[in-house]
Amino acid sequence: MLPDSRDGRAPATPSSGIRLTGVGRVHPSGAGEVWALRDVSMVIEPGESVAVTGPSGSGKSTLLNLIGGLDRPTHGEVQVFGQPLHAMRERALTAYRARHVGLVFQDPHLLPALTALENVVAARLPWGSRRGLERDARDLLAAVGLGARLDHPPGRLSGGERQRVGLARALLGRPRLLLADEPTGNLDAATTESLLDLLDAVRADFELTMVVATHDPAVAATAGRIVRLVDGRVAGDRPVDAAPSLDLMSLE
Amino acid sequence: MALRGALAALLLAGPAHGYELQARLAGELGPLWITKASQVYLTLGRMQRDNLVTVTRVRQATRPDRQLLLLTARGRKVAQDWLERPGPRDELVVRLAAARIAVPDRFAELAETILDERTAALRTLREMRGRVRDGFQREAVEAEVARTQAEVRWLAGIRDRAETIVATPAGRKAEEHVARLA
Q1: What is the pTM of this model?
Q2: To the nearest whole angstrom, how far is the Cα of A244 from the nearest Cα of chain B?
Q3: How many domains does chain A contain in total?
């Protein structure tokens, strides 16, 4: 059961996932127009982990922005947890984002003058008491392995640790949906692997629906399903299965 | 088995002489792959014994007779299985090289299938990495994770460029390559 029923949200129903129907996003450009996304239809079930992949400019970020209520489609419908984002006003979208959506970016853009703990809490102060938020933030920073770094400013954290602070911040509102846009784009290979492991653990522990945009097929492989965009259209949508067997090596 | 599969796959494109098959493989795979003529003929002999190919003699006016190889129904099945079924990862490059020549219209689909296989392997390896702790085990699994990541990235590139790759003319054996094969 999803956490909804515990905290009084509507229980999960078949319509409670993400449902895109004929979605397009056009930007005017000079005399003409540019289609960032075109005729995208898909369903993402609650608890699913989906990677959106494709070259730069293929529409990955646009898709995440539409699902996250940061942008509105010019065509089609975007339903998330039963809410029609395409038809909602800015005020309702803001409430939707605050309540349901956690965002992780390539660069967490932490405030340099604040500690890790303060960075996690700052953006949500309008939505809760400082004391309550700080208590949650401590738990979340511990959950991402930074329990001993609460008072460090970003300047004294590594790139991977700063990204973990960003993840804790994204989780603070206890969202049901985590959207990550190139979350490993600034990280080295080893840090990338541990962040991917952490994202997967967090998704399971917090019962999140997760959508990760990445240009890297090796990062996409951590998801349960890979949607590939080319020129704003869905060019592939395939599950990632477990391997039936691995090549074993024998010493000879 | 890679050579047997590759030779059978190349014969899907039509009957050929043994030396043509060897030159075609060398022309596609280039300097890193050693395709010795002696090994090619040995393998073709075994394929004939196993009823995967039949041999027709073609008379030549001034030279000795040449042997034209033809795939049997059984050989066709071996070729298709070798191309389509998950195989040892060392054979990935050879499978795709042979597919480009033998079944160009299926190349993109095959690249996608192999990408799916290796993506699944990467997922399973990462899960395994999370479970091992003792000694050097984690690092040993990590070596495979790293290799498989590189394969997945390479395969995704192949898939993305499949149309161009298929349209590229057959390769030729490089001179120094020929010298090394001698």
Answers
A1: 0.88
A2: 8
A3: 1
